Amino acid sequence: MVKKSSIKKTVQKALIISPAYTQKLLEIANYGYEMFGARVSDNFISKVENMVIALPKMPDMHPKNRFIESSGKKVYRNILIEKYAVLYSVTYNTIKVMTIYHTSINPKTIEKFR
User: Fold this and answer.
1) Which H helix or E strand runs over 98?
2) Which of 21, 27, 28, 74 has its CA 20 to 30 A from that of 39?
3) What is the residue-wise DSSP string for 19-86?
4) pLDDT per residue over 22-38, tens digit each?
5) What pLDDT is stored for residue 1 in this prediction?
6) Do 77 and 60 touch, CB atoms closer than 8 A?
7) Mean pLDDT for the chain?
8) What pTM did the predictor assign?
9) In terms of CATH architecture, what is 11-113?
10) What crossing angle do the helices spanning 19-36 and 38-53 adopt, rounded to 10°?
11) Domain ranges in the chain?
12) CA 58, 108, 34: angle at the middle one, nearest 5?
């Protein structure tokens, strides 16, 4: 018999995509087209989008952001993809994708993405 306390309820979290993330991803795609060509840029953008779409299944899979302090109710995490990071927050019932940024930026500026 399975103990009631050993069964963890999973709540399907709503995925919210911010306009800032959408705009930044478009800028990255355009830069990729100019620098590397359509195929390379499209492959990278597809990789990013697939990882973002998969977040509701396993939102805690990616590491916590080291530069934004999490609280008990909201945890900030990063999806690391090549030289970029997708910043997102996880609460009890939502996952909010806030932005995507190049990992070479000054860590002090990451706080402004909250």
Assistant:
1) strand 94-102
2) 21
3) HHHHHHHHHHHHHHHHHH-HHHHHHHHHHHHHHHHTTTT-TTSSPBPSSS---SS-EEEEEEETTEEE
4) 999 999 999 999 999 99
5) 54
6) yes
7) 90
8) 0.86
9) 2-Layer Sandwich (3.30)
10) 150
11) 11-113
12) 75
